[in-house]
């Protein structure tokens, strides 16, 4: 009997170390950043069982077998569709600005499509104005409405949007609603999903969260896009979830969320519709055939039109596309670079690119919220301040609420706005979308918005920063240790 238990004990010990060795080899074989690999290895060696469970559930990009198969089928179809647009030269600008050319060329080569001209574009800085405009457009829709949001939080004007959507569906407008399971968990606990489905709206819960799925799909992979498409002509995207800030996260004590949205009219809506069809196919297995590109349905150049490039990321889309686009934009800066982001945990490459831009003489400013809704992110982001400040980057902390806007402005000519935070999750993992606008007038409009943010912010003084207490430095480094996982 003693021999039996001894044998079992040795087999368990051997199995344990084989498991540790196997996970270690898997981490080393996967091509990932050194800080990320070292973080996972340290977690696994310090907390072996918890570390292994965490790595199996969060360490690799598992979309799930069915969704992964759909994603592999989806992109070749989308690539062919994009290629058909090349037969419509009237959609493309003759020339991009010097600052925009590298980014547009990158996207044309990697995703098969560049900027599309002939669009009307409105920048909306007020959540109230965004919701009023959206309600108006939904009520006037005549053919179809597609929406995707990370968060739909009931209450206030969000309920008015829901009522307008139900009303449109009842009069024959085909409506589809794709909501992230984790972000919209409160919505799915209300009566709204059943009310919408009873009205004929296709309501889909994207990437459902369940303990039973934890080892089969990565649970922190989220559908983070925010898009509205109406009649294949009107489109919205930006940083705002479908929430009324007066009713959203009131107990966090960070103030109301401040967002930035774009409302567009023109052929760019059709391009965004293709991205939506990809998301819908990955989640449901059903293919939504977008409008066939045709000169008869495309929109021609108008006065004050805008050239807009859409970049999408996530499983099934070109890998690291948005991260590469942001790097290209930062390296293209010659005079001025302004970044707004609610979460500042950049990759090493992006951190170095921003610092190098400042060393090159570019006037670099980063605007972040003074108070964050995430304690982990708040402390982890501080670990990057010293290197940024030492390179001459100005860091502003916004005091007028939780600044949730995501924007990059390069030389007041090239603008990037969308859903992407400057953190690992947005840059490498989630389904995200970014608009790139090559237009000086729009750049000046965005600059005024950013200047308004700065007027409500406090500038971090480097002399004051280097004198912060020792315990704060320890907390910053501790949370920085986990930054590749945030």
UniProtKB/TrEMBL annotation:
Domain called PLD phosphodiesterase: residue spans: 219-246, 399-426
EC number from the UniProt entry: 2.7.8.-
Record key words, sorted: Cell inner membrane, Cell membrane, Lipid biosynthesis, Lipid metabolism, Membrane, Phospholipid biosynthesis, Phospholipid metabolism, Repeat, Transferase, Transmembrane, Transmembrane helix
PROSITE patterns referenced in this protein's UniProt entry, alphabetically: PLD
Catalysis performed (reactions): 2 a 1,2-diacyl-sn-glycero-3-phospho-(1'-sn-glycerol) = a cardiolipin + glycerol
Enzyme class (EC, first level): transferase
Coiled coil: none
Enzyme active site: 224, 226, 231, 404, 406, 411
One BP term from GO: cardiolipin biosynthetic process
Pfam family name, one: PLDc_2
Gene Ontology MF terms in the entry: cardiolipin synthase activity
Membrane topology reported for the UniProt record: Multi-pass membrane protein
Family: Belongs to the phospholipase D family. Cardiolipin synthase subfamily. ClsA sub-subfamily.
HAMAP family in the record: Cardiolipin_synth_ClsA (MF_00190)
Function: Catalyzes the reversible phosphatidyl group transfer from one phosphatidylglycerol molecule to another to form cardiolipin (CL) (diphosphatidylglycerol) and glycerol.
Protein known as: Cardiolipin synthase A
Provenance organism: Candidatus Erwinia haradaeae
Gene name of the record: clsA
